[in-house]
Write a structure and sequence with these properties.
The protein is an alpha/beta fold. The protein is built from five helices and seven strands; from the N terminus they run βαβαβαββββαα. It has a single domain, classed as Maf protein (Alpha-Beta Complex), CATH 3.90.950.10.
Length: 198
């Protein structure tokens, strides 16, 4: 099966490709000259669906999209859908990540509970009336300082107390076994398998 991936985020693309290969062939939307879709919505599912429909329409292929972010209890779910641009849109992805992490640390006091949320959506065509939708939640805490060199985004601050490591201290293979994106993708593949055999 061939899908267009509705994301230009290289970290997401690496993780999703590793989880889907070799069963599903992914084509990045950037390789097809497709621009990123707008993400104006207040929920992960609406943004993921908008991205999937946009990429599917432009590529004339089934599309896979995810919208994900870090939700912190003490911040009433923020940064949430605004995770990528929490501290502004200026600069490279790495500069934005560093700024986002600094802002998050500055805003937190004692309650450091949070979770990564991933909403994964697949549409068979742009007007698919029954998109496949799966959610993955990965619970943890926000560390007091960044640790680790792997991953991207908030991974250096996302602490997994049971492992004593941040997501950025996990190997890519470890992260791909337990992350929010892995959980959502596994559920999505089960939905796809069930739909194919319905």
């Amino acid at each position: 099966m061939k899908l267009v991936l509705a994301s230009n985020n290289p970290g997401k693309r690496r993780e999703i490709e590793a989880l889907l290969a070799p069963a599903i062939e992914l084509v990045a939307q950037s390789a097809l000259g497709i621009a990123e879709a707008e993400e104006p919505h207040a929920s992960f599912v609406e943004n993921a669906l908008a991205k999937a429909r946009h990429a599917s329409r432009a590529a004339a292929l089934p599309a896979l999209a995810d919208d994900s972010g870090l939700c912190v209890d003490a911040l009433r779910g923020a940064p949430g859908v605004h995770s990528a641009y929490y501290a502004g849109r200026e600069g490279s992805r790495e500069e934005r990540d560093a700024r986002n992490n600094r802002r998050l640390l500055a805003e937190l006091k004692d309650d450091r509970r949070g979770y990564y949320c991933c909403l994964m959506v697949m549409v068979r065509h742009a007007e698919d009336p029954r998109p496949l939708i799966a959610e993955g939640i990965w619970r943890g805490e926000i560390a007091r300082a960044p640790r680790g060199a792997n991953g991207f985004g908030y991974d250096p601050l996302f602490l997994l107390p049971a492992l004593g490591k941040t997501a950025a201290e996990l190997s890519p293979a470890e992260k791909n076994r337990i992350s929010h994106r892995a959980l959502a993708l596994r559920k999505l593949l089960e939905l796809l398998h069930a739909a194919d055999h319905a």
